[in-house]
Recover the amino acids of this structure.
C-alpha cells in the first residue's frame, strides 16, 4: 500500500509545482473563494515585512494570522511553496494512517458483533468486507490531495492548508489513542482558528471508548478522564499562548486574531454566509446576530454528540463539515478537509438520496463563483445579490450533503439492529422517513 | 425536506420524468427558440426606458457653429498625415496646444504573434496623442473621453477635424464639471489598448508602452468617432465590445433621443428602423437586425474602437457616419451639435451608470432544461438496474464491480479530449515557424491551417481512447460518460451565457440537440454527419455565410471559405492582442465537450 501512496504524493506534488510556476498562481491567490482575510498569503508577507521593520505585525489591521505562523514563516519564507506542499502531504498521510487504523477497528468490532450474532439475518449484505475496505485509506488520501479545492488552496498559499495539517494530526493521534498528543494538537488547532474547539467532544468520546470508560455522568472515572484531558488541553493552550506573548512581547494578537474571527469586521465576499448578512444589517442589531451566528457553529456539538455518542469518528466528520459551513471566514480549503472523509462512508452510498442533486449543485456553483464575480466586479451587469445567491445555494447543497450522510448513517445503524426489510404492523413493506 | 425525503413521492416524480422525457425535451427546445424569436416582435419587448433621471431629457441648447472650420482642419490633418507617412504627432500636439488643451503623447510598440493579413501589420509602432480639457467647475475627479482613430489612407480625417473643432468650442464653455479628454489613437484598437492600459496602470497583454504623463479623473463614459465624408446620410451606433460586452442602454437611448431631436437619421446595425412591426416584412426586418446583433455579440470581437473601454467598466460606444445614396444629407455642424448635446448630458451625470439587466436567461434555461432532464433520466437509469428492490436498494456486488471500470472509462476520454483541446489552443502559434519552413504557406495561413488540422485530428479520438482502455465499453460505461458530458455541457453553456448571452445561445442551439440524441445505438454514418454539422467549427462556417447574407452581401463558397479562414485568424489574434475569451473558450472547453459526445457515438 505504500507504493500507490508514494505515487499519489509524487503526482500531487508535481501538479502543485507546475501550477506554482504557471501564471495561474497569481490569479488563484487573488480569488476570494480560495483565500480569506485570515489566510491570505499576501497578508502574511505584509506581516513579515512589518516584523522585519521592528513594528508589531498587527499594527496595520492587515495581518490576522497567529504569532506562531508568522515566526514559522520568518524562518521558512524562502521555502514557502515547499512548506505548503509539505503541509498538504502531511495532512494526506495523517488521514491515510488514521483511516487505516479506524477501518481495522471497525472491522474488529463488526467481527465481534457477528460472532455474538448481534446482527439480524437479512443484514448480511450490509456487512463490510475487508476487500472493499482495503482501498479506502488510499482513496481518502486521493480525495484530499487531488481535490481541486485543496490544489487551489495550496497554490494560493492559503494558510488554511497548515490548519488542515494540524487538524489531521489531531485526528491521527486521537485515533491512535495518544491522549497527550491529541490534546496538544487540539489546542494548536484551537489556537489557530478557535472553531476546532468543538472537536474535543468527539475526541473525548473516542478516547473513552478506547479505554473502556463508560460515558456516564455519575461515574468518577468519566469525570477523572475529562479532567485529565482538560488539564492537558488547557496546559498546552496556556503554553502556546504564553509562547506567543513572549515572542511578540504584547497581547496585540488576541484582539487582532480572535477578535477578528469572532466579531467579523471584514466583510469581503467569500463562500460563507456572514458577509452579505452583516453588510445588509442595521448596525443596531449587529451584536445580537453576531452572537446568534457564532453560537450556531458551536451549538450543533451537543445534539450531535448525544446522537452519535457511539460513533465518534463520524462525529468528527460532521463537526468538520459544520465548522466549514458556518465559520466566519470559510474557504474552499476547509471544505476539502471534510470532503476527504467521504470515501470512509462509501458503504452508505446505497442509503444516500440526494447525492446526485447535491453534487450537481456543488459543481455548478463552483463554476458559477468566478463567473458571477466577473459579472459583478468587472462587467457590472450583475450585483452582489447574484453572487450571494450562489453562495447560499452552495451552502444549502453542503448542508444537504452532510444531512444526507447523517441520515444514511443513522439508517444503516437502524437496519443493523432491526433488520433490513422492515415490515409495518399490518405486514406491508415499511419505509423510513426522516421528519 | 418533504419532497426530497419521502421515497414514495420521489419515485412518482422520477417515473413521471422518465416517461415524459422526450416530449419535455422537444417542447422546451421549441419554447426556447420561439421565445427567442419573440424578442424581435415589438409588442413583446418592453419599450426602452431611461433608468437614469439625469439622462432623461434632451433639454440642452446646442450651439456648435464651426462645422466648416472643422472640415478645413480635417483636410489640413490629412495633408500632414500624408507628409509624415503616419500619425502627424508634432502637428497634432501643436494644434491641440493652440486650442488650449494640456497635450501629452504616448508611444507604444507591439509584435503580433503572427502577421495580421487583414490589416497588413506585424511589428506595430505608434504614438497616441491626447489633450485634456480641465474641468473649470468641479474637482477633477471624473472624465469623459472623445476619441477618433488615425487610420492610414484617406479615411477618418473628418473625424479628427471634428474632434479638434469640438475641442476648441468646448474650451470656451464654462459649464464642464468633468475633464474631457480628446484622444487621437494610432493603429485603432492596439493604440487604444496601450492608452487604456497606461491610463489604468495595468498590463494584461504584455504590450510595450511609455507611461502617460498626464491623467484626468476616472473615466465615466467614452465615445469613439468615425467619420470619413464631409456630409453623411445617417449615423450608426456600434455597441458590441470585447467579449460581447454591451454598454448601458441609457447611452444608446441618449444617442437616439438626440438624433430625433436634431433630425439626424440613425440606423441600428446599419439598418433603418421600420414602424410596421405588424407586417411580415416588418417582422423579418427586425429579426434580421436582431440576428446581426446576436452574431456580432457572439463573435466576442470589439466592433469599434470603444470596445476595450467596456473592460474597465466605462460605458462607451462608437459613432459611425455613413454616406450612402439617400437624398437627405446631414452636414458636420449638425453632427458637432449632436456630440455637444451628448457631452453636455454626460457632463450632468452624477453617478456611474446603473446595471444592464438581462431578461434573456429564461430562454437559455428553457434550452438547457433539456440537458438537465437528460441527465436526470440517465441517472435514474444508472441508479436502478431492472431488478429493483425496495427503496432504491441495488445489488451490491454488481454495483461495486462496475464502479472502478466506470471511473476509468470516463476519465480516459475526459483527459484525452482536454489534451486535444490544449493542443488546439497552443499548437497553432507554436508550430507556425516550422510550418512555414516545411510548406509553401504564409505564417497566417500556417496558423489557421494548423488549427483546422488539430481540430480534424481530434475526430480520430474514439479509436485512440479505446486502444488505451483495456476492457471493452459497457452499456453502463457510455451512460456514465454521457451523464458527465451532459452535465459538463449544461454548466459550460450556463456560464458562457451569463457572460455573453449570444454566444451561449448559439452554442446551446447547436450543441443541445447533440446532447439529446447521441447514443451508441443510433445509425452511425448519419449521426456522425449530423454531429460534424453541429460541431463548433461548422457552426462558425455557417455563421460566416449567414452573417454575410444578413448584411445583404452574399458570397460564393470560395469567398466564404477564405472569409472563414480570416475569421479564425482574427479570432486567435483578438485573443492574444486584447484578451478576447472566445478562442480559448472554444478550444479548451467547448471543443473537448463536443468530443465527448463524439466519443459516445463511437462507443464500442
Amino acid at each position: 500500500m505504500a507504493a500507490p501512496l508514494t505515487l499519489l504524493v509524487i503526482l500531487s506534488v508535481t501538479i502543485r509545482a507546475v501550477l506554482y510556476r504557471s501564471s495561474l498562481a497569481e490569479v488563484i491567490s487573488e480569488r476570494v473563494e480560495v483565500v480569506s482575510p485570515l489566510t491570505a498569503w499576501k497578508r502574511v508577507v505584509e506581516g513579515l515585512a512589518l516584523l522585519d521593520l521592528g513594528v508589531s505585525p498587527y499594527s496595520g489591521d492587515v495581518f490576522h494570522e497567529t504569532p506562531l505562523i508568522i515566526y514559522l514563516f520568518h524562518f521558512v519564507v524562502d521555502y514557502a511553496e515547499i512548506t505548503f506542499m509539505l503541509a498538504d502531504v502531511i495532512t494526506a498521510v495523517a488521514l491515510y494512517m488514521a483511516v487505516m487504523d479506524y477501518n481495522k477497528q471497525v472491522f474488529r468490532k463488526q467481527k465481534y458483533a457477528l460472532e455474538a450474532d448481534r446482527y439480524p439475518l437479512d443484514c448480511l449484505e450490509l456487512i463490510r468486507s475487508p476487500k472493499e475496505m482495503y482501498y479506502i485509506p488510499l482513496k481518502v488520501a486521493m480525495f484530499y490531495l487531488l481535490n481541486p479545492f485543496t490544489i487551489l488552496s495550496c497554490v494560493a498559499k492559503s494558510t488554511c492548508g497548515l490548519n488542515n495539517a494540524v487538524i489531521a494530526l489531531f485526528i491521527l493521534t486521537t485515533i491512535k489513542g495518544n491522549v497527550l498528543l491529541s490534546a496538544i494538537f487540539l489546542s494548536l488547532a484551537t489556537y489557530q482558528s478557535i472553531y476546532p474547539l468543538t472537536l474535543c467532544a468527539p475526541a473525548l468520546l473516542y478516547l473513552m471508548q478506547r479505554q473502556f470508560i463508560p460515558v456516564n455522568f455519575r461515574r468518577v472515572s468519566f469525570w477523572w478522564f475529562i479532567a485529565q484531558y482538560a488539564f492537558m488541553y488547557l496546559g498546552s493552550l496556556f503554553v502556546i499562548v504564553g509562547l506567543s506573548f513572549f515572542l511578540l512581547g504584547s497581547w496585540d494578537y488576541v484582539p487582532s486574531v480572535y477578535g477578528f474571527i469572532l466579531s467579523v469586521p471584514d466583510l469581503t465576499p467569500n463562500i460563507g454566509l456572514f458577509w452579505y448578512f452583516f453588510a445588509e444589517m442595521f448596525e443596531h442589531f449587529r451584536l445580537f446576530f453576531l452572537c446568534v451566528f457564532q453560537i450556531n457553529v458551536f451549538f450543533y456539538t451537543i445534539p450531535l454528540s448525544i446522537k452519535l455518542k457511539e460513533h465518534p469518528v463520524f462525529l468528527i466528520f460532521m463537526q468538520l463539515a459544520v465548522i466549514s459551513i458556518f465559520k466566519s471566514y470559510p474557504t474552499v480549503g476547509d471544505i476539502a478537509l471534510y470532503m476527504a472523509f467521504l470515501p470512509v462512508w462509501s458503504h452508505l452510498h446505497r442509503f444516500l438520496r440526494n447525492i446526485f442533486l447535491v453534487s450537481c449543485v456543488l459543481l455548478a456553483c463552483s463554476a458559477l463563483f468566478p463567473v458571477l464575480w466577473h459579472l459583478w466586479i468587472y462587467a457590472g451587469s450583475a450585483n452582489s445579490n447574484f453572487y450571494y445567491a450562489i453562495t447560499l445555494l452552495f451552502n444549502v447543497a453542503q448542508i444537504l450533503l452532510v444531512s444526507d450522510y447523517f441520515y444514511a448513517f443513522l439508517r444503516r445503524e437502524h437496519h443493523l439492529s432491526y433488520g433490513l426489510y422492515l415490515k409495518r404492523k399490518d405486514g406491508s413493506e415499511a419505509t423510513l422517513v426522516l421528519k | 425536506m418533504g419532497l426530497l425525503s419521502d421515497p414514495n413521492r420521489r419515485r412518482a416524480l422520477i417515473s413521471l420524468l422518465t416517461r415524459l422525457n422526450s416530449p419535455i425535451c422537444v417542447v422546451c427546445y421549441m419554447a426556447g427558440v420561439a421565445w427567442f424569436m419573440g424578442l424581435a416582435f415589438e409588442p413583446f419587448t418592453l419599450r426602452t426606458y431611461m433608468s437614469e433621471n439625469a439622462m432623461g431629457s434632451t433639454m440642452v441648447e446646442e450651439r456648435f457653429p464651426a462645422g466648416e472650420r472643422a472640415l478645413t482642419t480635417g483636410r489640413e490633418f490629412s495633408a500632414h498625415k500624408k507628409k509624415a507617412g503616419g500619425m502627424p504627432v508634432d502637428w497634432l500636439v501643436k494644434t491641440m496646444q493652440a486650442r488650449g488643451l494640456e497635450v501629452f503623447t504616448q508611444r507604444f510598440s507591439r509584435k503580433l504573434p503572427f502577421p495580421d493579413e487583414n490589416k497588413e501589420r506585424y511589428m506595430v509602432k505608434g504614438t497616441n496623442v491626447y489633450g485634456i480639457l480641465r474641468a473649470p467647475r468641479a474637482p477633477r475627479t471624473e472624465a469623459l473621453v472623445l476619441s477618433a482613430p488615425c487610420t492610414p489612407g484617406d479615411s477618418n480625417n473628418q473625424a479628427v477635424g471634428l474632434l479638434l473643432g469640438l475641442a476648441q468650442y468646448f474650451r470656451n464653455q464654462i459649464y464642464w464639471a468633468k475633464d474631457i479628454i480628446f484622444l487621437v489613437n494610432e493603429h485603432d484598437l492596439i493604440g487604444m489598448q496601450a492608452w487604456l492600459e497606461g491610463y489604468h496602470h495595468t498590463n494584461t497583454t504584455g504590450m510595450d508602452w511609455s507611461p502617460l504623463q498626464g491623467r484626468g479623473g476616472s473615466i465615466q463614459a467614452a465615445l469613439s468617432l468615425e467619420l470619413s465624408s464631409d456630409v453623411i446620410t445617417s449615423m450608426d451606433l456600434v455597441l458590441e465590445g470585447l467579449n460581447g460586452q454591451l454598454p448601458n442602454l441609457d447611452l444608446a437611448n441618449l444617442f437616439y433621443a438626440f438624433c430625433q431631436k436634431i433630425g439626424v437619421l440613425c440606423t441600428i446595425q446599419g439598418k433603418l428602423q421600420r414602424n410596421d412591426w405588424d407586417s411580415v416584412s416588418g417582422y423579418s426586418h427586425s429579426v434580421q437586425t436582431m440576428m446581426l446583433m446576436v452574431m456580432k455579440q457572439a463573435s466576442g470581437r470589439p466592433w469599434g474602437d470603444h470596445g476595450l473601454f467596456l473592460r474597465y467598466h466605462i460605458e462607451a460606444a462608437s459613432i459611425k457616419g455613413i454616406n450612402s445614396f439617400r437624398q437627405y444629407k446631414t452636414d458636420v455642424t449638425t453632427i458637432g451639435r449632436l456630440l455637444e448635446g451628448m457631452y453636455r448630458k454626460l457632463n450632468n451625470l452624477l453617478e456611474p451608470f446603473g446595471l444592464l439587466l438581462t431578461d434573456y436567461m429564461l430562454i437559455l434555461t428553457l434550452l438547457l432544461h433539456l440537458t438537465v432532464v437528460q441527465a436526470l433520466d440517465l441517472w435514474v437509469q444508472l441508479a436502478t438496474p431492472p431488478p429493483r428492490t425496495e427503496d432504491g436498494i441495488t445489488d451490491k456486488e454488481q454495483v461495486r464491480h462496475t464502479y472502478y471500470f466506470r471511473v476509468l472509462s470516463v476519465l480516459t476520454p475526459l483527459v484525452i479530449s482536454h489534451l486535444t483541446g490544449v493542443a488546439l489552443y497552443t499548437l497553432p502559434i507554436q508550430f507556425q515557424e516550422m510550418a512555414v519552413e516545411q510548406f509553401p504557406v504564409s505564417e497566417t495561413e500556417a496558423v489557421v491551417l494548423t488549427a483546422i488540422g488539430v481540430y480534424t485530428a481530434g475526430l480520430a479520438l474514439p479509436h485512440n481512447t479505446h486502444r488505451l482502455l483495456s476492457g471493452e465499453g459497457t452499456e453502463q460505461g457510455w451512460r456514465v460518460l454521457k451523464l458527465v458530458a451532459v452535465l459538463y455541457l449544461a454548466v459550460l453553456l450556463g456560464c458562457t451565457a451569463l457572460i455573453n448571452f449570444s454566444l451561449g445561445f448559439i452554442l446551446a442551439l447547436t450543441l443541445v440537440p447533440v446532447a439529446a440524441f447521441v447514443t451508441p445505438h443510433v445509425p452511425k454514418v448519419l449521426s456522425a454527419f449530423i454531429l460534424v454539422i453541429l460541431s463548433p467549427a461548422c457552426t462558425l462556417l455557417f455563421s460566416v455565410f449567414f452573417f454575410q447574407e444578413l448584411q445583404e452581401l452574399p458570397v460564393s463558397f470560395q469567398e466564404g471559405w477564405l472569409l472563414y479562414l480570416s475569421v479564425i485568424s482574427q479570432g486567435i489574434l483578438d485573443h492574444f492582442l486584447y484578451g478576447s475569451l472566445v478562442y480559448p473558450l472554444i478550444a479548451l472547453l467547448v471543443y473537448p465537450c463536443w468530443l465527448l459526445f463524439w466519443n459516445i457515438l463511437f462507443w464500442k
